[in-house]
Each structure stands twice: as structure tokens, then as C-alpha cells.
Amino acid sequence: MEKKHVYSFGQDGAAGAGLSKELLGGKGRGLAEMTSLGLCRPPRFHHQHRSVLNSDDEQGGKVPADVRELVLEAIEKIENEMGAEFGDSENPLLVSVRSGAAVSMPGMMDTVLNLGLTDVSVEGLSKKTDNPRMAWDAYRRLIQMFGDVAPGIEEGLRQMVPARRIKGKGGRGGRHGRSRPCYDLEAIVAEYKKVIEREHGSPFPQSAEDQLWAAIDAVFGSWNNKRAIEYRKLNDIRGLRGTAVNVQAMVYGNYGDTSGTGVCFTRNPSTGENKFYGEYLINAQGEDVVAGIRTPKPISTLHDVLPEVYDQLVEYKNMLESHFRDMQDIEFTIQEGKLFILQTRTGKRTAFAAIRIAVEMVEEEMINEREAVERIDPNDITQLLLPQFDSESRKKALDEGRIIAKGLPASPGAAVGKAVFDANDAVAAAERGEDAILIRVETSPVDVMGMAKSKGILTSRGGMTSHAAVVARGMGRCCVSGSKDISINEDEKFFTVPGTDIKVCEGEKVSLDGFRGEVMLGEVTTVDPEISGQFETFMSWVGRDSPAPRARQCRDTDGRQKGARTRRRRHRTRSHRAHVLQRGQDPQRSQMILANTEEERRAALDELLPHQQKDFESIFRLMNEKPVTIRTLDPPLHEFLPNDDDDQRELAKALGVDVSAVKDKVNSLHETNPMLGHRGCRLGITYPEITEMQVRAIFQAAVAVKKEGIVVYPEIMIPLVGTKAELADQEKVVRRVAKEVIDASGIELEYLVGTMIEIPRAALTAEEIAEVARVPSLRHKRPHSDGVRLQPGRLRRVQQRCTVGSGRLLSYDPFQVLDQTGVGQLVEAGVTQGRAGRANLKCGICGEHGGEPQSVKFCHRVGLDYVSCSPFRVPVARVAAAQAAVETPRK
Length: 891
Fold this sequence. Notes:
- With about 900 residues, this protein is of the alpha/beta class.
- Helix content is about 45%, strand content about 15%.
- α28 (about 725-745) links the parallel β30 and β31 (about 750-755).
- α4 packs antiparallel against α5, α13 packs across α19 (about 535-540) and α22 packs antiparallel against α23.
- The two termini are about 35 Å apart.
């Protein structure tokens, strides 16, 4: 196919029909599809992103001459369709210039509307439309936007122009530009032009063509502006080569009372309810809705104002959702009673909405179960686990009159934090480890980093489709928008509730309820959510028909297990790890550590044994029929003894020993490199009686609960093995004690013995280590082998710590995302060599990397059987694993 740089989309067909989103951008692709469906929308053309043109440096940031010719040809096509001429003094064609990347980045890149107006053509437009106020309002908007985005304009102008616009709101024209008389708008235009000339060094362009090239260059350049870069980082958008430019004929929502503009969703983006949802403004242009300058009206009321337009909009939204087979975000303009669809794209939604929409679309036979699973971003699953306010605590706040204001429930969740009134203050608070609520009259793209660092966002202006609402939903941040009950003073950093004496200053605690849209004084207690219904249905589909790695919980105690019980049942997870020597066993544990002889140590261990057995019995009962992997003592003993003088004296007093004995023991146990020192398997080798006690507690607990009818599968993990001999030594202890307990009880038990590969040497010698992890001698009801578990969370420590971000060394924080290039080689080597020693070796990883989607997909590619992480991240891991099984072949 011949390479093209410009694609035209007219009412009679689309040159870009059938082309990919990567080529046309998300907006371009949507408009091409709308053209093929015959929807009424303004003619436009798509200008490929600059990287495809290879013109970044060679052209000095300018559009190449040959491409300029194609652009002008596309403009001529729009002129013919609209019956107007670009730059004409009497019948001017006006266009909008917008970005169009393959991935939606709402509000992050530049837009210029009403392009083509000049001092002469504004008079022509006034006469043509017989609407001077609309023409001068359009000219005012053009110069304001041009001043914000045109290259060479200083940052000061970016601040001065909006400031002058806001200052003028209280003048003769009333609060909004739609109410200003024409002469007031002319005066504002004259003032804007003076600012442009003073700051830019040249007048505002009076050539429509010059405006076009400047706007195209500005949109291309906005790909690398600060807010766009930060947004891509926050949303992990990678691999895109830049943005395209979309040039579209203008239609006017600010024509009068039969004109308007709006944004709508085919389903509710917050809840997922299959109900038409959106907002609109009469006599307005598009940025008035998304910027929150005016509070819009619910889309349902459009039926009372313009019933025929509403019916046509409903028809179009049904057509678009059916065509794209997904919830759509639609922008529209009404010009004198005629509906135009400006764009459609896959709508951003909360995780709550995403699950409901996916499940209901399967029920409606619009998509299948596999597609439903593929559509959910695994990271978004965490939104389903967002905190909510405790009902009693909220009722108390209600009774005490602390629910002081209401707004729109723009993004769900419960957030508590200190009030801040500037995005930079929110970032600073996060760096200090403080929770912040960002409070703004209205947010803008420059606030995006502060929004990301805040626990919640509160605005006094804007609707459910405002910048604050859309960005907060995408980030999973609690947001209450458009709260008319409060008056915010951003300069003095406080807000008040008019009609009351309530005043909330910077630093005071505020609570936001993103489910109800409530604002509360002080701190309200939050609780974990209950998950059921459609989420349960969705999770039942995950991994059903694909060989994906299993997801396990990584927990320490029975108490924590109980906290995760609901999630375990619904997600069909396995308990991964239970540690020994928990809290509540401090005296016996300390006596064991302070013992100077084996006899003293065994006496202390005998006292610890019943406590350990009780812990394991509780875990086995809770995890009935699920394997429980129990990691024998891992930390070095000095970690169980206090370092503080006062605490050491208190321990000595409790044990009836001299404080010097405690101090001497702490000093003797101190190690320069405890990771490779006297801990884990090496501690068990030095003191086999410690391993014996742990194993005896495990198997006596297993026997006890099996007598109760509980199905139990213990898996014994020996930590920090570096050599085959270390594992062999500890494995003998485990099997000897297990046999003693089983023979004495007469109860047959199935169990496994394995290890965790945590240090580089073990990964490189996994073939030898796997030889020791023998298949159990007991009869198997389930065909699996003993195993090896890898922990890249510790292997990664071979790397030097490096910062992550703009201008830094690493793309990802290796403490959050598995380093696939470096540490990943050790993981893969461990799997490959381990299975060379035992073909059916069970392999998995442990740690929070096991709940990070990119890392989970890597684990699938290298052939791991399971991943293990905290209960909170188990559903994330399961979805990522299922998607990995579909996307990538398993080794």
C-alpha cells in the first residue's frame, strides 16, 4: 500500500477506513469508523504523527513542504463540503486542530479551536451568521488558546491570558462569556492581542494559513510537554512514537439557545450501569464542559430541551456501542438544532464499571468470556479493593453535623487526608509521607502530578466529565467534583461553607466519599470493601480455559489469613507462606535465643511447640483443601532481640537475667551481611533442634486437623539455600521428624519438601538443588512433585539501587517491577536448570512482584507454575496470568 501522510474523512467516505489505530491515532480511527457508519460529523483530515514523517530534527520542527501540499489539498476538500473558504473575509471556514495519539490522553496535549479567524474574517462571520456575539466569542477563544499553545510564547503569557479572562468575568458582561455584550468581547480580544504581541514579539497572525502551521506544530510539540510526559509515566503508556494531528471543520455550539455541546457515555463510567449517561451545555463550546468552567446539565434533560436531537443522539450512541462492542465516550455539538458527532473512543471507566460492563456485555452476547477477561487492566482490579467508610463512623459524622457539603460522586473510594490547595503541596505532602486531599476550584492538566500523589480530589466546579473526574477515575483516586456547597480560596488556602461559620484551612483533616459525593470534616474510619456479584462472576472466568500460572496468597499469621478469608474463597487462591515464631511467643522465643546450651535451647523450644502447633492448626482449618506452604525460620536471630537499651532492660527483667546477657547476645549475633550469613537453612544446620521443633509443630497440627475431617496439604520450604548440601541436610531433618509424627499417629499425610531460590548462586545451580527435592515417598492423590520457589524480590538486591523516572537510569523501579533483563535471567536460569534436574519440578515466585502484571506475564513466559503475593494483589495476579496465557506461548 502506498505510504500516505494525510487522510481525509468526508461525508462521502473515508480515505482512512480500515486502517489501524496505531496509524490513525485513537481519535482518527474512531472518526474513520463513524464515517463508514454514515454518522453526521464535520469533515476532517488526519495528519500522521511526526515520527512517521521523520521530520523532527531535519525540518526544525516544521511540517515538510511536500506534506504541506497534502494538508492544503485536504483543507480544500473540507472547503468544498462546507461551502466556505479557509481565510476568506466574507465566508470563512474555521477549523479545530487537535491531537490524536493511539492511546487516549484526555486534556494532556494542546488543542486550538476556531482557527482561521482574523480581524477581517471575524466581521465576515458576524454578517454570515447574523450573530456578532458568537463570532467575537469564537475569536476571543482562538486568541486565548493560541496564546496558551503557540511556540515561542513565554510561560508568563500562559498564566496572564487565563488570568485576564477570569478577571473579566465580573465585569459588564456578567459571569460567563455567553452573557457578555459584543463590545465587551471586542475589548477583551484587543487586550489579548496586546499581550500576544508584547510577549511573543510579533502580532497575532492575521493569516489563516500561518495560524494553521503554528497550531499543527504546537500540537506535535505538545507530545513532549511536561503534563503529557507525566501522564504517560503515571499510566505506563509506552512504545508510542508521538501524536497525530486532526483538523476538523468547526461547528458551533455557541450559536444560541438551539445550539450546545456535550460529552456522553453509552453506559455509566462510574458504576457501569447500562444507562445513557452524560452532560451538556446549551450555547457553549466543547471546552466549557470538560474544563468545568460552567456546571453542565444531565444528558437526560436534553430530551426536554431538544427532543429530536436527543432521540437522534440515543440512536447514534446505540449504533456506536454495537459497532465497537464496548462502552463509548462520545463528544457532540448541536448547531441550530443539527447534531454533529465530533469523536468517539473507548470510554475510561472505574474498575467497578469495567467489571460490570464486561459481565453484562457477555450476558448480552456482545462479547465472549475470553474477551471480557482480556479487556480488564489487571492494575485496575485494585480499585475494587478500595476502602469505604465504616457505616457507624459515617453515621457518627452525620449525627455530629460533620457532613458539610455534597458534590458529584466523580470517582469512587473513601479518602482521608490533610487539606492542600496546590498540586505542588500535594506532591510535597506525599514526599513527607502524609496523606493529602487536593482541593481546587477546578483542576487542569498541570495538576496531574499532584492529583496522582493525593488520596482524594475535591473541586467546587465541574461535572462528571470534567478534567478532575476523568483523570481521577483513570488514576483510581477518590474524587468529589462540582461541590457548589463550598467556596474555595486557593490563594489564602482555605474553603468555607457559605451560610455557616465553617472554615477549613490548609492542614486540617478532611474526608471524601467518592461513592456518595460527600465532604466531611475530620477523619472518618475506613474499612475494606465486600466484593461479590459481577466481580465473582468475572473471576470465575479468569484462567478457566488457559494454562496460566496460579496465584497464591503470601501471608504471615492466622489473623491476617482471616482478614483475607473472603478474598481467598472468591479468588480460589492458595496460602503461600506461614512463618514461625509469631508475636505472643516472645518470652519462649527470647529464652530460646538466649540459651547457651542445647539443653536450654530445647527446653525453650518445647515451650514454643504448643504455640506453634496452635497457629498451624488455625491456618490449616482456614485453608481447608488448599496447599499451605510453610517457610521455616528465615530471619537471623538478632532480629528477634531488641537493640534499644530500655527494651533490653525490660526483656532482661521479664526473663530474670542480667541485662548484660541480652546485650552480649545481641552483639554476638550481629552480622555485616546477614542475607548470606547465619540465617535460614544455615541456622537450622547449626541448631537442628530449631528445625525439628518447627516440623514437629507442623505435622502434629496436620494430624490434629485431619482427625477433624480437614483436608490438609503441608509444603515445607527451606529458606536461603545456596548449595545442594544445605538443602539435603535440612530435608533429612524434615523427613525424619515427619515420619516420627506420622508413624506415632497412624495418620497418613501428603506433604512436599522444597526450597526458595533467593540468592544468585542457587539460581545458577538449580539443577543440582532440584535433585534433592525428591518426589514424596507417600501415596499421591494429586500428581505433583516437590518444588523450587524463586524470590526475585531478594535476587534483585544484586543490583545497585537506581532512581526511576525522567532523565534517570531505569525505566521501572526494580523493587516494584521485575527486572526482566537482569534478574529475569536468574529466574529463567533457575527454572531451566531446575527442570533439567527434575522434569516435573513445580516452580513459582514469591513476593510482591508476583502481583505486578508485567512481572506475572514474564513468569508465564518462562514457565512458572504459580506466582505468590499479598492477598490484596491476588486478583490482579490472576487476571494478568490469564491474559498472559492468551497473549504469549508458554515455554
